[in-house]
Amino acid sequence: MSVAYNPQTKQFHLRAGKASYVMQLFRSGYLAHVYWGKAVRDVRGARAFPRLDRAFSPNPDPSDRTFSLDTLPQEYPAYGNTDFRSPAYQVQLENGSTVTDLRYKTHRIFKGKPKLDGLPATYVEHEQEAETLEMVLEDALIGLEVTLQYTAYEKWNVITRAARFENKGGERLKLLRALSMSVDFPTADYDWIHLPGAWGRERWIERLPLLTGVQAAESRRGASSHQQNPFIALAAKNADEHQGEVYGFSLVYSGNFLAQIEVDQFRTARVSMGINPFDFTWLLEPGESFQTPEVVMVYSDQGLNGMSQTYHELYRTRLARGAFRDRERPILINNWEATYFDFNEEKMMNIARTAAELGIELVVLDDGWFGERDDDRRSLGDWIVNRRKLPNGLDGLAKQVNELGLQFGLWIEPEMVSPNSELYRKHPDWCLHVPNRPRSEGRNQLVLDYSRQDVCDYMIETISNVLASAPITYVKWDMNRHMTEIGSAALPPERQRETSHRYMLGLYRVMDEITARFPHILFESCSGGGGRFDPGILYYMPQTWTSDNTDAVSRLKIQYGTSLVYPVSAMGAHVSAVPNHQVGRVTSLTMRGHVAMSGNFGYELDITKLTETEKQIIKEQVAFYKDVRRLVQFGTFYRLLSPFESNEAAWMFVSEDQSEALVAYFRVLAEANAPLSYLRLKGLDPNQDYEIEGLGVYGGDELMYAGVAVPHRLGDFISMMWRLKAVR
To answer: Is residue 456 marked as binding?
Structure first.
């Protein structure tokens, strides 16, 4: 049984994979956190929370100075009635006060996992895969009920959490803070890990010791953002890639978020995560409810790799959906860095004909095919084909591409509008804005107001008409600016601070509807590259353009950091021209290929201008990737050497039956008279022999425990890729 309740001890024990999560009802209905970690048979109080009289920690019960919420480990804490730490929620009453008091009311345990209203979330295919606990807490004075939702997966060390607020009273309530989860750890003896970055430098790994006070990762940009990612982890001091305890927290949401750790005066650590309270409120009329997004919590006693592999398998098979969830992804050529806005049908067909010769499978037409879109200063929102560039329309171009044996894909950016567009001139109130203030632009565009149903309805029909107009099998869905002047002409003053979350609900509705109408299309998300690489988007689109930075050396860190949470099947990776358009670096076509083949493979350069030698290399890359594609996209991924810690990087992919593997090794800069490098592999069968093409036959135990010597080569930017096959 995944969830059990003991009425004698009033303990709830959630068993998820090989982990235990334990809570207990304390005193008069307070829900306390007891334990989270490696699976235990039972919790009988060996590590019981000590009852002490702590100075300046007030007492709800004046007769008991040893009890204070300021020292009690809690599951969903409030502020104002003796707990001075950061609360999980805060509610304002009509009288202006913000003091609430949630106590246990009832609970329900059932098999399976319910959907979250209007929000993406992990799921089960059969109810036996998980059990769910719904814990109802109540503030009887004001009629507020909060249902804490816990799901324990049977197969994985995964607990998911969310909260639902219901106003069952007679007065209006205003949510000021509504996080999805909170966990109180008994010690702060951890490092915290997050994934900061910037455009072109997304998801770098940063590991820092916990310090007294508040440490946080957050976004106030209206998107999960390049600058932060909705993920943090706590790692034991001795934890590394392959051993030690790690606790992961990943928010299934694409908007403003907060992931916070507070270390208090007693060196306990409170981790909380959810919608960012900054610039957020939500009005709950009597009878109304509010659902928070889901947090996916992963426990690993096998280090960071163990945590990552759990996230990879869960997100690939129980978050991503649709026909492409388990299907191999095509090798594509995108024309953006080849032509930018300067293309026509003839140019696209030249690219397509060359792609067919090289074995590429999909041609993608990027920005510039619609309206008067000759640059980024106009026409976003005018989703009408530019007949000057494409005289035969999308349908005519796509059919010509299909005749070459290739699929046809298209770029769209349906969340934005150019001030210089027919759509904006007709509907200037359809963008995010506030009265009497200038409308700031980014990339010469504004953000459409997806909190409005009429805007969402219009975009659903408009984009559906485009996608139905031609044999399109791939869509790159872009979003190239963050939110400013966040307000809606359709909302009353008291609901203006709901706009950014209502936008996300509208976006999810639009994505859900469009992807459901076109299940044969592979949708790839993009936001200036990786600016919205989050679990919320993966629910609708199984892959994301990892970064606009296609430089092979930069991508070592970007893809390595992304793999901390996200599966390889979610990562778009392309070979581009040199000097690289983002950093100006020159790397070999071989290294660019090896880095890009470590994700969903493609090209983004003018292949019509390549030499015959370069075309032959690409032919060989394409043929090789087709042969190992399933292993890369769906195999078990291991990080071996971190580019954040040395001049080298390495990772590998292992098939489920351990019969084959693919190893990628990279060295950035050459070093004179350098020491030898040995690479210890992972995930192989120690009792099996493996042939490494070009190197020989070795035992799996030798390759993992002794390691394999990296061949010595001169020069900067060196890469190698070895394929291993079990010797039968």
So the answer is: no
367 has binding-site annotation: yes
Question: pLDDT for 296-335, tens place per residue?
Answer: 999 999 999 999 999 999 999 999 999 999 999 999 999 9
Q: Which CATH architecture group holds 75-319?
A: Distorted Sandwich (2.70)
Q: Which entry of 478, 627, 657, 689 is annotated as an active-site residue? A: 478
In angstroms, rounded to a whole number, what is the distance separating the alpha carbons of residues 118 and 28?
34
Cβ contact 562:229 at 8 Å: no
CATH topology match: 75-319 vs 641-726: no
Catalytic residue among 101, 139, 548, 551: 548
Is the pLDDT reported for residue 44 higher than 90?
no
Q: Is 477 annotated as a binding residue?
A: yes
In sequence order, the β-bridge partners of residue 527 are 530
479 is in an annotated binding site: yes
Mean pLDDT taken over the chain: 96
The three-state secondary structure class of 301 is coil
Confidence of residue 46 (pLDDT cuts 50, 70, 90): low
- φ and ψ at residue 63, rounded to 5 degrees: -85, -5
SS (H, E, C) 39-58: CCCCCCCCCCCCCCCCCCCC
What CATH fold (topology level) applies to the domain 641-726?
A: Immunoglobulin-like (2.60.40)
Q: How much of the chain, in percent, has pLDDT values that exceed 70?
A: 99
Does the annotation count 548 as an active-site position?
yes
Q: What confidence category does residue 58 fall into, taking pLDDT thresholds of 50, 70 and 90?
A: confident
Annotated domain spans of the chain: 75-319, 641-726
pLDDT at residue 1 tops 70? no
478 annotated as ligand-binding: yes
In the three-class reduction of DSSP (H, G, I as helix; E, B as strand; rest coil), residue 515 is classed as helix
- Is the omega angle on the peptide bond into residue 428 within 30 degrees of 0, that is, cis? no
Distance CA 476, CA 370 (A): 15
**Alpha-carbon gap, residue 455 to 632, rounded angstroms:** 40
Nearest to 296 by CA among 181, 125, 129, 133: 181
- Kindly state the helix (H) or strand (E) to which residue 162 belongs, with its residue range: strand 158-167
